[in-house]
From TrEMBL:
GO terms for cellular component: mitochondrion. Arginine methyltransferase involved in the assembly or stability of mitochondrial NADH:ubiquinone oxidoreductase complex (complex I). Acts by mediating symmetric dimethylation of 'Arg-118' of NDUFS2 after it assembles into the complex I, stabilizing the early intermediate complex. This is Protein arginine methyltransferase NDUFAF7. It comes from Regulus satrapa (Golden-crowned kinglet). The keyword Secreted does not apply. It catalyses: L-arginyl-[protein] + 2 S-adenosyl-L-methionine = N(omega),N(omega)'-dimethyl-L-arginyl-[protein] + 2 S-adenosyl-L-homocysteine + 2 H(+).
Amino acid sequence: QGYYTRRGGVGESGDFITSPEISQVFGELIGIWYVSEWMAMGKPNTFQLVELGPGRGTLTEDILRVFKQLASVLSKCDVSVHLVEVSPKLSKIQAEMLTGGKVQPNPEDKSAYMKGISKTGIPIFWYRDIQDVPPGYSFYLAHEFFDALPIHKFQRTEKGWREVLVDIDPEVPEQLRFVLSPSRTPATQNFIQPEETRDHVEVCPEAGVIVQRLASRIEKDGGAALVADYGHDGTKTDTFRGFRNHKLHDVLSAPGTADLTADVDFSYLRKMAQGKTATLGPIKQRQFLKNMGIDLRLQVLLQNSGDTATREQLLHSYDMLMNPEKMGDCFNFFALLPHHRLVHPDKKDKPGSKSPLPPVAGFNELLLK
Ligand code: SAH
């Protein structure tokens, strides 16, 4: 039914709400992360910000505001924005949010289907697939993107691995049900890791393919990727669920009308990047945001806000993002970085010349000088 292409319910009036929709601070700190990595990597004179699944465009909007505020730092850098979005409905909302609606369809260029200029003067392009984004030094962002991609489900049985499939219930017409494949399937043979110890596993091969692409691009052209999503490090089993109007919804009823989601298995993403890039995390959202300085940012916003309602809103959204019972613990941050960003390449000729590499923001404790 194409949930995202037809309904695409991100936001308060939709089916689920995401961190950038809750607080501007979230996107601002992610914007700082990119500026910090750009500086650590020697301030290259150009970079692309590539976002996968930008939703309503709020996260990019907040990041671009940071880039504008830090214009003196970024002044000599040529920045462009590249959005990978399949939903015509959401791409319209993004265009309105980021450019005030000043976009053009782009039929002469087969890769980007739309282009425009952000309110802050940065060129923005829209694509349907990461492979259409031109090569070049890029910072990638995927927030609540991988959890939206389809998964395979597997169950260990006495006879070996079986795939969980969807079937029509013979007793109740129009109703779907889960069944186990009677024998092995191509997916059971290809997608389960030989060392797997769990009895029930969810695998998202599309996420694996996209991470391999990101890792290859970073290895070849440089940059970094930041992935944030709810997920686990290869420990959880049955996480597939649906949301409609902000309530849990049976995944098999009224297909196409609810957001379907499964926790991201970061151990699988790490495996897919292996060899090409280094990885950091997953680290819990509350730890990452704390390391990025969310407490300081909150203090500044509280000091600058005159009215009680705004202050209450700021404290409420901080609690939503940071409280371990809310989004603080179940959301994780994970990064792909070139190997040389974490480990000095061997300089055999000048062994004494190694200066320490700057720590990667967010994944290390914030030290105030
Ligand atoms: N990052 C946003 C939205 C997350 S919702 C936020 O945090 O608010 C998931 C997003 O991924 C939506 O924009 C959806 O349209 C997009 N999406 C889903 N499947 C996709 C696919 N296969 N390719 C590209 N975008 C996809």
